[in-house]
Amino acid sequence: MISEAVVDLSRLQFAMTAMYHFLFVPLTLGLAFLLAIMESVYVMTGKQVYKDMVKFWGKLFGINFALGVTTGLTMEFQFGTNWAYYSHYVGDIFGAPLAIEGLMAFFLESTFIGLFFFGWDRLSKVQHLVVTWLVALGSNLSALWILIANGWMQNPVGAEFNYQTMRMELVDFGALIFNPVAQVKFVHTVAAGYVTGSIFVLAISSYYLLKKRDLGFARRSFAIASAFGLASILSVIVLGDESGYEIGDVQKTKLAAIEAEWETHPAPAGFTLFGLPNQEEMRTDYEVKIPWALGLIATRSLDEEVKGIKDLIAEHEGRIRNGMGAYALLEQLRGGDKSAETITAFEAVKHDLGYGLLLKKYTGNVVDASEEQIKLAAQDTIPHVFSLFWSFRAMVASGFLMLALFACAFWASARKNEESKPWLLRWALLSLPLPWIAAQTGWYVAEHGRQPWSIGEVLPTHLSASSLTTGDVWGSLIALVAFYSLLLVIEMYLMIKFARLGPSSLHTGRYHFERQAAAQSAQA
Amino acid sequence: MFDYETLKLVWWVLIGVLLIGFALTDGFDMGAMALMPFVGKTDNERRAAINTIAPHWDGNQVWFITAGGALFAAWPMVYAVAFSGLYWAMLLVLFALFCRPVGFDYRSKLENQQWRSAWDWALFVGGAAPALLFGVAFGNLFLGLPFRLDELMRSTYEGSFFALLHPFALLAGVVSLSMLCAHGGAWLMMRTDAELHQRSRKATQLCALVFLLAFAGAGAWLALGIQGFSLVGGFSDLGAALNPLNKQVSLDNSGWLANYAQYPWTRIAPLAGLAGGLLALLGALFNRGGVAFLGSSLAIVGTICTAGFALFPFVFPSSLDPASSLTMWDAVSSYKTLGIMLVVAGIFVPLILLYTLWCYTRMWGRVTNQTIESNPHGLY
């Protein structure tokens, strides 16, 4: 058995590297699309300012992209280094979307990004525009495939356990790709990326407008960002709601934990707006509820119930007992008894094998687990309610704040009076962290809400880790935190420096600081 | 389409193709950056060297990422056992590679000389360290790695990072480092001019010479001093789903060379390695960048094939428990996954080659002092 410390440290390392990676990814997704839109306007109108916009926002895009690539490398190899048993157990399915992501998306994005930066003088206008669109397409496709992989972790469809190879194997590729969880997640996530890009451009343009410099440049950037942002935030919210519907169907435990639904209430369930969930005692203090809302979101009906945590634990306990039987049969099969009866008996219960494996945390010998161990394992099937409850609400609140901002910004930009509304500009500038708060809390909900599973109801997280020592994982964790922090400081320094400098950093002579310098030298 | 046995063989070839694709493309990025601080004396020369690969390094790096993904998809056991076992070696490679994306993009964003020089050394590490470590890892495959599989297919690894630094493995590291540096040097010969070109030419000569000696030396060592593995039985049907623990492996001295004796055509691989190294050396001596690059490319293909042919059918041998060794017969994905991934690769690899080639032709030409000075803010 692997020590619990190794599992916890490996989880911490994965969470840290993934969340860090996702500081850069959404901005890449959103900016790539915005750059493609800006360049399309340039090619259609022929106005130089749009080309300058592509080049300037492209410079900031590049600073961000470099760290996205750097931190992405870790993600591709960390399953092998730290989650070796996971890689063996589900590699037959999970590896495929990762490899396809490389072949279909990364190559496209990464091959053309060089031409995006350095091909301005070597390509025709239209060719360069096509290159920019291909970069945007590549980054979006990579999101598609990685979310197909992630969606499968949440809802492992199209796969069967094979006792001979002791792993999950692919049986239906179509089910893997058209996994409803993956499809909804994809649109929700890329739209969240577009929102991130839009807020980024909106906030920094607002800064120039507040400083009253490079107005034409800033106004146009503001207009594109507010329109694209409004459309995107609407899709995020609608798809987020759709996401609620999907998890209501396949991940009842996650839903119950997010909502701190301890009991199964008669349909339709109410939505808890505020409360302090107490997992020890299984109740929520000081709760404020909106009647019916949760039932509507999660089941799209008024008569289906949303199952509560207490009932789920009882249900899971039954599945754990069933899983013990499955494990006993698996041992027989692996031991050489391959009679038709054993195989049939195993096939009938193998969908609960994962629940049996939950006991591995407490005993090497699953078959003889004690009553107490079974109870403990059943308790483990509920993730940490308080943090999920509040992360989810932080995400939703950020989303609605951004909706209000984009609506006002779009309205002001359509009436061409955003410059006379300093409150709006300041609000936009202060909103810069919101999409990141929403993305990080959203991923926390998605991934912590899946615990104790690495693959939903198939493979427990504590079994998935590599057989490493705590020293190994402490060492890599500290090294990664140190190196990543250093890189983040450098990145922020460059980002702020160039954002402050604005389009003057292009050295075209057309923008604020260079004109100021030219005017001063003319005076002298 | 294919039966399972054939598919397994096809994927062994495909993984090799991806590795070769990686070494041919990202190989000159790594080689050029490993040489950059030495062949580039002035800031403009270093920028010229960097800008020869600026539009391409990211696309090239995807060969590495895709090889990792393909390993995960096609040989999940190898992906799992190798990367967790070689934990610190893998992390060192990753940390070295971290230096590249940021190094390229951030280096010339500030005028400060200390800033730039720090990034130059970061780029040097990002090029040289992986080039060396990949060779060390390959060398260790011939020695076997200390891991074993239990009944549930969980692997435990009982070695340390320092145990990987066996003299033979270090020699293999020299082979790969000198090979990729010769490749990078030949690339710089083709893409730069003046003193930078001349220094790259000297570096290519030196690296090609070191490669030839090290490659021949490693071959002799392999023949004389290293115990090989051979698969002697246990698998009745190679086209079935196999449990790695059911095979019988014997350790005998002709093991790693047995394939060359049994299938004489495979000897073309080491010959190509030597001929490539020689061609690279001659190309550099006679100042023909294109010829040198062709030579270093041939050396790369020859060297990787030499290792692959010698090890076949093993891909990750175990010194601790030879039966736990992973082979291309028993460490593979299911028939269905291999088939689907073959179709995907069949469609996308040719497409990738086409658009990559288009990008190279668009950006072709020498990067000179003049190029840098005429566009100081638009280039890396």
From TrEMBL, chain A:
Q: Kindly indicate whether the keyword Nucleotide-binding belongs to this entry.
A: no
Q: What transmembrane ranges does the database entry give?
A: 20-44, 56-74, 94-118, 130-153, 186-210, 222-240, 390-412, 424-446, 473-496
Give compartment(s). Cell inner membrane
Which cellular component terms (GO) are annotated to the entry? cytochrome complex; plasma membrane
| Top-rank lineage group of the source organism | Bacteria
Picking any one GO biological process from the record gives: aerobic electron transport chain
This protein's major location comes to membrane
Name the InterPro entries on file: Cyt-d_ubiquinol_oxidase_su_1
UniProt GO MF annotations = electron transfer activity; heme binding; metal ion binding; oxidoreductase activity, acting on diphenols and related substances as donors, oxygen as acceptor
Give membrane topology per the record.
Multi-pass membrane protein
List keywords of the entry alphabetically. Answer: Cell inner membrane, Cell membrane, Electron transport, Heme, Iron, Membrane, Metal-binding, Transmembrane, Transmembrane helix, Transport
Question: Which family does this protein fall into?
Answer: Belongs to the cytochrome ubiquinol oxidase subunit 1 family.
Q: State the protein's name.
A: Cytochrome d ubiquinol oxidase subunit I
The scientific name of the source species is Pseudomonas linyingensis
UniProtKB/TrEMBL annotation, chain B:
Q: Could you tell me the superkingdom of the organism this chain comes from?
A: Bacteria
Q: How does it sit in the membrane?
A: Multi-pass membrane protein
Q: Which GO terms describe its cellular component?
A: cytochrome complex; plasma membrane
Tell me which positions the record assigns to the signal sequence.
Answer: none
Per UniProt, which keywords does this protein have?
Answer: Cell membrane, Electron transport, Heme, Iron, Membrane, Metal-binding, Transmembrane, Transmembrane helix, Transport
Q: Which InterPro entries match?
A: Cyt-d_oxidase_su2
Q: State where the protein is found.
A: Cell membrane
Family membership noted in the UniProt record: Belongs to the cytochrome ubiquinol oxidase subunit 2 family.
What protein name does the entry list?
Cytochrome d ubiquinol oxidase subunit II
